Amino acid sequence: MNKNILAVFALLMVGVTAIANNKTGDVNRDGSVDVADISTIIDVMAGRSADVPSVSADVNGDGSVDVADIASVISIMAGVSPIGKDPIIEPNTVEMTEVRGWQESLYAKWNGSPGAIGYHVFVLGGQYKDWTKVDEQLVRNYGSYARVDVVGLAPGTYELMVRPVFPEGDGMPTLADTHVSNIVVRSYSRQGFAFMNGYAPGAYNADGTLKQGAKVFYVTKSTAKTIKTNVAGAETNPCVGLQAIIAGYEKGKDTTPIAFRFIGLVEKDDLDAIGSSAEGIQVKGRKADSELNLTFEGIGDDATLRGFGFLVRNAKGVEYRNLGIMRCMDDGISMDTDNSNIWVHHCDFFYGKHGSGDHDKGDGQVDVKSDSKLVTVSYNHFWDTGKTNMFGMKDESGPNYISYDHNWFDHSDSRHPRVRTMTVHVWNNYFDNVAKYGVGATTGSSLFVENNYFLKTKKPILNSLQGTDALGSGTFSDEQPGYIKAYGNYFDRSATNFRYYTQSNPTTTGFDAYEAGSRNEQITEETKLTYYIKKDEKGNVKAEVLANPYAYNNFDTNPQLMYDYTPETATDVPETVTGFYGAGRLNHGDFAYTFKDNVGNDDEDSAYDSVLGGLLDSYKTSLVGLFGEESQGGNDDPVDPDKPVDPIVPEGTILASFDGAPSSSMFTAAGDYGDGKSTYEGTYCKKGVKLNSKGSVTFTPQKDYQMTLVLATAKTGRDVTLNGQKTTVGGKENAEGAYYEMEPISIAAGTQYVITKGSAESILMFIKLVPVE
Question: Taking Cα atoms as reference points, which of 649, 577, 643, 574 lies closest to residue 611?
Fold first, then answer.
């Protein structure tokens, strides 16, 4: 069909009523889906519309811009979604319950077939021109149902065949198999600095398929220690275990792409080793920006890592996708030192290790430090996190470009992000009940804050010692300022604790951000003047009118630096971010929790949520295992996925650690701390309270508990003195965890307890209190 015929075809559709504010199909982003969008598609097909990215014109998400996209726009104009059609299921021997395409993947669930010992699944479409059997590890047993997730798919329409496997055997698919067609798969959004010059981070190509020669490893509770492969240059081959394989890449002699596919719940104790005692798994190159081509991805909606995170150093080309990270040791993902082209997307980040003070929710979730650059953090869901994202320390030489889009800050507290020195594009994020502040700039950073949605956010935008932050004693930072350009953001009216100061309405201490009149406006020498706040020798704040020495660098209007992207209007952001293709894991993961919104204006509740914390600690996967193998999920009592989980009340089980300080304010420790290096119930602690002539722990419980004391095997003590009486209970030693677990002791509400040295010196690492029902 030539362009003239297409133009006539478009004119015939003038009578079709346009649907306003429908993002899909609004190719020219004018707020409506109408004939003008068809005309824009025609221009893209003819190469006449360089301003419209092809991803926007690819309405049906099949990877190309053609007549089918025009038909999709016409369907939308007529009130029919081209991607909203249900897959067509031809039932036979398998009863399908749910089938859907997602982003570069699809999944299907079905009821178990009587007598079947497993299932073989075949896929057709995209890169698979013939029926192709999917890896058996992708087909999993959830007790009452079976599920398959097919990943690494190019955008397009797919078909699926599912065949029960009986002891008699099987062959290629036949008409007796259950057939599903019309499964539409979309592409991930690849808009950001990580993809500069067409670069594809990780083990996948830009079209969603695996790179040539890529290896795939399935990491489960049972296989994390046993997966193995030869790595060029490794000291010992084969490298056995997840960390061992990654460590082999530190020699810099192997760049073979690897996709590590996590299935079910994998905990720290399931790993073969950890390369970083502070973070967990270490991903490291031989020297700065070493090519690694590694992807860490979750399979399905329940891939969860608990008790560890990732330290990334000297690495180029690393991707994290579709993972849930709970109770990490320090940071969830720490990009620390000389990394580039890192992509973190569609992950759920929960509380880290429960500590004291500002570490009660853990430390950072995704941090970018020490000359890490060309990073994209997109479509992630942050659950009530505390110090969410820190970008930059104080010694970066820069420039360090980061893109930060479509993230969901769900009742989180601060650092969304907190930026020093770096250059960051903050766009289309959803700030949902943020307790302390949203975006914060310091130390010469340049931020373009564009088309974000701020709901009940106490202080949406802050610049160190400027505007709002300079009022009073300074609410954010006493570091030198950065510079923020803002455009198109939405602030809901509940933000009564914040008045947005711009160059048009500065306070006596300057403004929070320069509010641009258009996306492409540059900050000129005339507009760089601001109130620059300084402190005198006595620490008193004084304001002087002079040029901010850390001027905005106008990166966003530099065609040599900026990537192609298509921002949505701010009011569309919540729907997109919370939608099916939005932030977090597939189907928003298998973990559900409803936050209590504050009554009134601004969410100021930044306290640790013990109910949420308890649910994270008690989380179990409902995965039984891979078909034909023993249980992989570590769940001896499978959970009915349709049965609601009973919440844990705040007065539930308490697990307190003493790693340099008590993790719970209930306890007071005296004396010195010693190295115990114990791991108990998934929590690693280096230090504990020395129970010697000086050491003690004092507390008063508010209800009756069964108390378990955990002592390090680093000392010989196997009992303690409790309120002047030596304990006589027994216990058991755990060599792998390096601890001695005493049998439970009954303690009463309202009684003060003092724990001191027993028969010999010991190190008290943990106290677990289980309420007496």
Answer: 649
| pLDDT at res. 459 | 92
Residues 6+ positions from 749 with CB-CB distance below 8 Å: 701, 702, 703, 704
Give the per-residue pLDDT at 22: 35
- DSSP-derived secondary structure for 173-189: --TTSEEEEEEEEBPPP
Q: How far apart are CA 263 and CA 299, in angstroms?
A: 6
pLDDT band at 637 (very low <50, low <70, confident <90, very high): very low
At residue 377, the 3 state secondary structure works out as strand
The whole-angstrom distance between residue 743's C-alpha and the CA centroid of its chain comes to 38
Q: Does residue 474 come out as left (phi exceeding 0), alpha (psi in the -120 to 50 range) or beta?
A: left
Lowest mean pLDDT among 82-96, 355-369, 471-485: 82-96
DSSP string, 625-674: EETTS-BSS--SS---TTSPPPPPPTTS-EEEE-SSS-SSTT-EEES-EE
Query: Is residue 315 exposed (0-12), middle (13-18) or buried (19+ Cβ within 10 Å)?
Result: buried
Q: How far apart are CA 229 and CA 218, in angstroms?
A: 13
- DSSP reduced 3-state for 239: strand
Q: Give the count of beta carbons closer than 10 Å to the beta carbon of residue 112.
A: 16
Q: Are 481 and 463 in contact (CB under 8 A)?
A: yes
As given in the structure block, the two tokens for residue 408 are 């969901």
**What does each C-alpha distance from 544 to 17, 515, 541 come to in angstroms?**
57, 22, 10
Residue 662 has pLDDT above 50, yes or no: yes
Q: Determine the distance from the C-alpha atom of residue 202 to the mean position of all C-alpha atoms in its chain, rounded to a whole number.
A: 16
pLDDT digits (tens, 9 = 90+) for 441-485: 999 899 999 999 999 998 999 998 888 888 765 668 888 889 999
> Residue 560: which residues within 8 A CB-CB, separation 6 or more?
none
CA distances 389 to 305, 402, 755, Å, are 19, 12, 39
Contacts of 308 (CB under 8 A, 6+ apart): 267, 268, 271, 274, 279, 280, 281, 328, 329
Cross-strand bridge partners of residue 405 = 378, 427
Determine which helix (DSSP H) or strand (DSSP E) holds 486, and give its type and residue range: strand 483-487
**pLDDT range class, residue 640, cuts 50, 70, 90:** very low
Residue whose tokens read 């990334």: 312
Task: Return the structure tokens found at 691.
Answer: 């129970």
The backbone torsions φ and ψ at residue 677, rounded to the nearest 5 degrees and listed phi first, read 45, 65
Place of tokens 């429908």: 22
DSSP 600: S
CB proximity list for 721: less than 8 A, separation 6 or greater: 727, 755, 756, 757, 758
Length in residues, the chain: 773
Residue 735 pLDDT exceeds 50: yes
Q: Which two tokens stand for residue 119?
A: 């299932």
Long-range contacts of 637-644 (CB under 8 A, 24+ apart): 638/142, 638/143, 640/144, 641/142, 641/144, 641/590
Q: Is the pTM of this model over 0.90?
A: no
Phi, psi of 170 (to 5 degrees): -155, 170
Least confident span in 65-74, 167-176, 396-405, 750-759: 167-176
**pLDDT score for 535:** 55
Report percent pLDDT > 70 for the chain.
Answer: 84
Minimum mean pLDDT range among 8-12, 32-36, 49-53, 269-273: 8-12
| Distance from the first to the final alpha carbon of the chain | 75
Of 33, 12, 11, residue with least CA distance to 21: 33
Q: In the structure encoding, which two tokens stand for residue 729, read together?
A: 């209970």
Token output for 274:
């950890």
Mean pLDDT on 485-489: 97
Task: State the helix-helix crossing angle for 35-45 and 3-11, rounded to 10 degrees.
Answer: 170
In the predicted model, what is the mean pLDDT of the chain? 85
